[in-house]
Amino acid sequence: MRLEQSHRTERFGAVRIHELQRVIELDSGAQRGVDLGNRAGNSQLVAPEAIRAIEEELVVVIPCMNETRRVIEGVLSGIPHDCLIILVSNSARQPVDRYEIEVQTLEQFCRLADRPAVAVHQRDPGLASAVKAAGLPELIDDEGLVRTGKGEAMLIGMAMAALTGRKYVGYVDADNYVPGAVNEYCKAYAAGLHLAESPYSMVRISWHSKPKLRDGRLFFSRRGRSSEITNMFLNRLVAEHSGFGTEVIATGNAGEHALSLDLGLRMRLAGGFAVEPFEYVELFEQFGGLLPEAAALPDDVKAVPVLQIETRNPHFHDNKGEDHVKGMRMQALNVVYHSPVSLPAVREAILELMVAEGALAPGQEPPRERIYPPVGSMSFDTFLDTLNAESTGFHQIECSLGVSTVT
Question: For 227-252, what is each residue's pLDDT tens digit?
């Protein structure tokens, strides 16, 4: 893969946010022997063997909720063969057990592709017992089950990924209609994680375009309705500290992103759709050097790089309506507003927008989103033992080579 060279980096303490890099070539040729130091003008090459080495250590988590079988099959087919698939479903089980259909789809795919996978249902009582026994009761609701929400599904996916012994975890939404886009995302994860050269690293995807049907023809929009607002306020947060305006953050709502488990296991995660923008906020709080309780980096880690990659494939997915978009936008602003690293000017601007949009009455404050402890605080031995003993919604699918999924 050939990527545009990143020439500018915004610093927030130990966090290094790289400007958006475009994918120039999806396949840049064999490039045998190419390494990080081999740059061609304004581009960076990542050799196939380097991408493959990351894919062999990459777990791809697919949060899923009531998607059609054909769409799920397409997403599965786009994930590179050496990546391990973990499906975290919150699909309906009545009157039709859609999760059973998803597991059958996954099993059939794995049998044909000869590869392993893992599936778990988010609302399975055995999973809730495992989470609680492992030391994360905050994730359990009043019904005694894991809370509903995308952030909660991603947290479960990260916990499952930690059981595999692999080094990286990436996320791909289940409602993607283009298998080629899924494949490109995973290749971009691998390329970015290779280029980051850090055990604490993150890669976030900015899709090339999001097509919409207007007046009987496709219009290829460059930005989503929620992303523009989220990016604007995250950039404002950074700018208020540096004293210089910036537009470096282009992936505040990036559902498709990947990170090293060394980093992910020590990060708190937010619930619902606040999860993606909160990852930026959490990095600023933990590694920005502003808070007395901030964590120190290990001696062998000098920085936390965040690479942003603009892919080539268009992003076709289900349109969930204006209320869904507005909800995502408000949850993102909630976590920015309540962060201790947000300065008063940022908070005031958020309040003005929320009042103008009718989300708040004058004088009200935004609600707080749920923030969960780091996944690394769990006892993984207890989690796996309880999961195996009590869960009926946990499935491990092995391949003919006998490759284990969790250890």
Answer: 889 999 999 999 999 999 999 999 99
The answer, as to whether pTM is greater than 0.90, is yes
Non-local CB neighbours of 401 within 8 Å, separated by 6+ positions = 114
pLDDT value at 60 more than 90: yes
Residue 89 burial by CB count (10 A; 0-12/13-18/19+): exposed, middle or buried?
buried
DSSP assigned state of 358: T
Cβ atoms of 48 and 26 closer than 8 Å: no
The total of other beta-carbon atoms located within 10 Å of residue 32's CB is: 8
Closest listed residue to residue 260, CA positions, set 311, 196, 207, 205? 196
Phi and psi, residue 404, nearest 5°: -75, 150
Place of tokens 């496709």: 218
Q: Do β-strands 39-40 and 43-45 pair in parallel, antiparallel, or remain unpaired?
A: antiparallel
Q: Are 183 and 79 in contact (CB under 8 A)?
A: yes
> Residue 321 is encoded by which pair of tokens?
């309506």
Q: Which two tokens stand for residue 114?
A: 């000869």
Supply the mean pLDDT for the chain: 90
Q: Which is nearest to 306 in space by CA: 5, 9, 3?
A: 9
| Tokens linked to 70 | 């054909």
- Looking from the CA of 113 toward its CB, the CA atoms found within 13 Å total 22
Q: Are 20 and 222 in contact (CB under 8 A)?
A: no
